[in-house]
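To start, one record:
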Amino acid sequence: VAYVVQEMTVRLGAVTHRGHAEMIWGRYGAFWGVFSLLDLTVANILTLVTEFIGIRVGMSVFSVPPALSVMLAWIFVAATMIFLHYHTWERLALWIAAGNIVFVPLAIAAHPDWGQVIAAVGNWHIPVGTAVGAFTYVILANLGTTIAPWMLFFQQSSVVDKGLTVNDIPSGQADTAFGSLSMGIIAIAIVILTGTLAYGHTNAAQFNIHAILHLLRQSSLGSVGTALFALGLVESGLIAAIAITASTSWAVGEALKLPRSLNLKPQRALPFYLSGILSAGMAAMVVLIPHIPLGFLNLTVQVIASIFMPAAMLFLLMLLNDREIMGSYVNRRWQNYSAFTVVGFLILANAVYGYTVVFPSP
């Protein structure tokens, strides 16, 4: 799913040399441009909340107060945008993203029952008695963190800012495939790690991240494993916050026709930088609200991202099938089938979840 969606944005950016917001405004007019921008901005602020949650929880392992950890993360994200040129910014982001790999050795070191892991992949099922609404909620949350509106705007604008052309499309496709595969492997590693830790506990379904951290400390991984897991949470939050903040700035800059590039000095493109940085600041403040239910908020935000995604996908598909724009690089039949399958599944899952909310089971 991640590859199908993001490969299209690479192709669109390389062919048109224009960002996603700019394409929507130019092709479909101000009304749909405003709609897509509001859709993106709201979804981005909400998604940034989840990234700051990860940073806050991860830093708490090292006894860093929430206010300090969130503030430092926000300053770091802002500084990388304002003071680094695109290529330096991209390399820094890639080095941070590489930290995700820490979850793989942690999963192996937890000594899972690999026979059970293989069996679970081949024979998974919905547990008897599971509410349809609850199951759909989790499915939507997973989809929302796999594909979200910010990814479309971010990837296409980064392709433009980097200066890629049609000759770079194969390399962009390979990068996207490698990133999607890596993301899948790391996600599986996290499931294996946390599943191994929680297995056998009667109340495992109610465990939150703090319970997992407690189990990590009590396991053979000990304090070192707990610290590495916490660092993984922090770097995962940071890399996503960097990308989402940039996507907001690019989209606002394209919509308002502002000077927009990470290569521009702050004095020349201050409104461009501020739009993303201020949205990140709003998300950071939400995370610091006393007694806010972080776990519930984390899942719900991803569900909202899934709800917003079909509209964003339809704009993307219309652009990718516009031969006047794309020429010979329009979507092939299999690409359209794959993309419309994703859209259809999202709409169906959203409809099922909406029905269970309006008409909950007794």
The chain has 15 helices and no strands. The mean pLDDT is 89.
